[in-house]
Amino acid sequence: MKFDFNAALEKLKNTDYKKLAKDFVYGKPHGERRLGDLYEPKTGLYKHREWRGIKDTMYYFNNIWLYNYGMIVADIIKYSKGDLPAVLKGLWRYRWMGQTYLTVMHWFDRGLEGMRGEGLRASAWHYRGIATGAIRQFCTMFRADGNLHGGKHNDAWHHSIAMNETVWGGLFYPWADKYTNVALEMIPYFLTAHCNNHVVLNYIDAAQGIGVPGDNCPMCQAEAGIFILDDVPDYAPFMISVNEACDDSVATTIIQDWLFQGPLCSLGMPMRFSDPLVKQNCMNDIEKVWKFIEEQTGTAPNWDLMKEKLALQNANMRWEWEKWDVAANTNYYPINSVAQALYRIYTAQVGMYDIAPYIEGKVRKIMEKCVDEKINPYPMTRHRAIAWSCAPLYYSSWCTWAYNCWGINTIINMDSLMMDMEIRTDTYEHMLEDCAKYHMEAPMRRMAVGGMDHFLEVFEYMERFHCDMVVMYDQLQCKGAQSMHGIFEDEFRARNIHAIWMPHALPDKRVVPRAEIRRLFNDYMFTVMHEEPLDPSLLDFDDSESW
Ligand code: SF4
Questions:
Q1: Which residues of 139-148 are buried (b: 16+ CB within 10 A; e: fewer)?
Q2: Does the beta carbon of 449 sit less than 6 angstroms from any atom of ligand 1?
Q3: Contact present, 44 and 52 (Cβ < 8 Å)
């Protein structure tokens, strides 16, 4: 192309240098960023990184990008406890590991896109919390893994407990000083679906390949698929499974029971948890599990340790309530929606782990600064949204997109609100009763499939969190949620509530692509809300092959 000297001269003459300098120092204002222009077509990879102004670009590069790469290495060294070869072998042996470790920082990038200041910092700490928790889990699996140690079962194997990812980690507190429990599918399925969504598709296809019908929940299919493809580390002598979140998971348990090489104890979880008659049944089941662990390990439960751990967990719950209070009643809440939801689900489900207090300390400092100095980390908020029902794993960063493109700030998610309680430790009976309640009010079960009255709690939470919009997840293969579609439509209409339906298929982006989700959002915002986008470059782009 011929260089046009005159045009270049004209451009230089017309450039507003004051504005240019300002944009360089502070970054472009929200409406001028054109974040969509940064993407390579299809892959969603960046042509170049976003310039966020000097301070935030430096922060992102040093304190998020470099720091997290460094800490990933440091965490692997720490949690592999001298057995680094096992981690390296795990990288080759397991598809879910080999195909996701490089995409982790891109997962950070997607969730933190466009963020500035305290919002960027607080959200990144929650991402760091999930990453380090994940490394702890897969390193524990690999250190103990018979597949990676020539078929031999070492001491780590004898001191590990495998459980379904939806069994609450707190049930294992009484053995926490001698045994490490690791949620089996949490990293192979759940987290990898966020970091690199291509991986999970193999597991879904594998489940359908042996005749599992394609129209049931893809989460349950994928959890079964990792067993069918023999992509499960042999890291523990026994396993605890559960029928959470819904009866689709029962089918997973059957397949896991066939393929798991060892005793399996199935923990029941009542579907209709608010029926008082079922709580006793659940308490009995938890005691059955504790007895099973005692028999398998030959180690009696340490109830003092349980109390100690629950005290930490209760303190964490109280801190979570403080966060919710700030989110509900002020504009100073610094954690973006995807960071908030994923971290909350992760910690509530896994239970207290070593680094959680450190992460929370960092976030507390940032949030207190926002409150004290009245900093609004999301100043372009036009709508305060609540996201309800079961969320798409392959597009958890949609809320970052919705804020950047339309100013829709998702204040709270349904699954953040489950397991919302302290656990009494004054007597064994109280503790057992509360453990049963906590266990029953698990993700998805608590609101989505635990009964219609709970599903409709969205309207109470909407009021409590001062939201003016509902983003209604529409998991097309979730029969429980689907059965409520019409009732929700009627309720939204009767209450005059703006609700955007977001169809998806949990981890399977082939059913509803991300671009289709964005198109539906855009349609609603243009035709119903009569609004214009804050960043038109984000309206339509092709990320069909992205991680
Ligand atoms: S998304 Fe629906 S079908 Fe799938 S596990 Fe959750 S509640 Fe069950």
A1: bbbbbbbbbb
A2: yes
A3: no
Tens of pLDDT, residue by residue over 220-270, are 999 999 999 999 999 999 999 998 777 777 778 888 888 888 999 999 888
Q: At what angle do helices 117-144 and 356-372 cross, to 10 degrees?
A: 170
Comparing C-alpha atoms, which of 71, 55, 70, 75 is closest to residue 121?
A: 55
- CA dihedral 481→130→468→370, nearest 10 degrees, is 170
Residue nearest to atom 8 of ligand 1 (CA): 246
For 352, the token pair is 């207290």
Stretch (H or E) spanning 265: strand 264-267
Model confidence over 477-501: pLDDT tens digits?
Answer: 888 888 899 999 999 999 999 999 9
Q: Tell me if 478 CB under 6 Å of ligand 1.
A: yes
- The percentage of residues in the chain with a pLDDT greater than 70, rounded to a whole number, is 100
Strand blocks (E) in 404-518 = 408-413, 469-475, 498-504
CA 387-488-466 angle, to 5 degrees, is: 40
Cβ 539 vs Cβ 35: under 8 Å: no
DSSP bridge pairs for 472 = 388, 501
The alpha-carbon radius of gyration of the chain (Å, integer) is 24
| pTM of the predicted structure, to 2 decimals | 0.95
Query: Probe ligand 1: pick from 388, 449, 479, 512, max atoms within 8 Å of CB?
Result: 449
Instruction: Check: CB of residue 397 under 8 Å from CB of residue 127.
Output: no
Positions of E strands within 180-246: 180-183, 239-242
pLDDT at residue number 1: 61
Spacing, Cα 245 to ligand 1 middle (Å): 6
Contact 357, 312 (CB under 8 A): yes
CB of 469 within 6 A of ligand 1: the answer is no
Taking the C-alpha atoms of residue 342 and residue 118, their distance in angstroms, rounded to an integer, is 19
Q: CA–CA separation, 380 vs 524, rounded Å?
A: 19
